[in-house]
Design brief:
The longest helix is centred in the C-terminal third of the chain and has 28 residues, at 109-136. The protein has helices at 11-20, 43-57, 73-80, 84-93, 109-136, and strands at residues 4-7, 31-34, 37-40, 62-65, 70-71, 99-101, 104-108. By secondary structure, it is an alpha+beta fold. A hairpin with a 2-residue loop joins strand 2 (31-34) and strand 3. Helix 1 packs across helix 2. The chain contains 5 helices and 7 strands. The relative contact order is 0.11.
């Protein structure tokens, strides 16, 4: 079984989930109906399921990764919204670490998510500088 899974749901299912999971701060038990009966989830699992369903209800595409999951360069590129060629360049520059599996590069999902977080913070900082320039009347060239 793959250690990386991606999920999206239909618009009608999103509406149904949104009405149930509209409050992101909701707490309490979550039960799952199985063939063997109803199972009440432990608190941590209930919080994770509530968060997952809330994200799906908002229309977000949700990815579930195991801690030790590895991605191909294409999977990492898809996750980051970048081209595979650019991800390979980032690996070759040492910006994102990867290991070789034969002739193929494998990236730890934690490294890819750390790069994504760093990239988002840099983009946010640049946007802040741009906004400050506009407020100060600095012309854009």
């Amino acid at each position: 079984m793959s250690k990386t899974l991606a999920y999206t749901i239909s618009a009608s299912d999103r509406k149904r989930l949104a009405s149930t999971f509209a409050d992101p701060d909701a707490a309490g038990p979550v039960s799952v109906q199985t063939d063997a009966g109803v199972v009440e989830l432990p608190a941590a699992a209930a919080d994770a399921v509530r968060h997952l369903l809330g994200e799906l209800a908002s229309g977000a595409s949700v990815h579930v990764f195991a801690d030790d999951a590895e991605l191909t360069t294409q999977e990492a590129a898809d996750l980051l919204g970048l081209s595979r060629t650019y991800v390979v360049r980032l690996i070759d520059q040492g910006t994102i670490s990867a290991r070789m599996a034969g002739t193929h590069r494998r990236l730890r999902v934690t490294d890819v998510l750390a790069y994504e977080s760093h990239r988002k913070s840099r983009l946010k900082a640049v946007a802040g500088i741009t906004e400050a320039d506009v407020v100060a009347g600095v012309p854009y060239r």
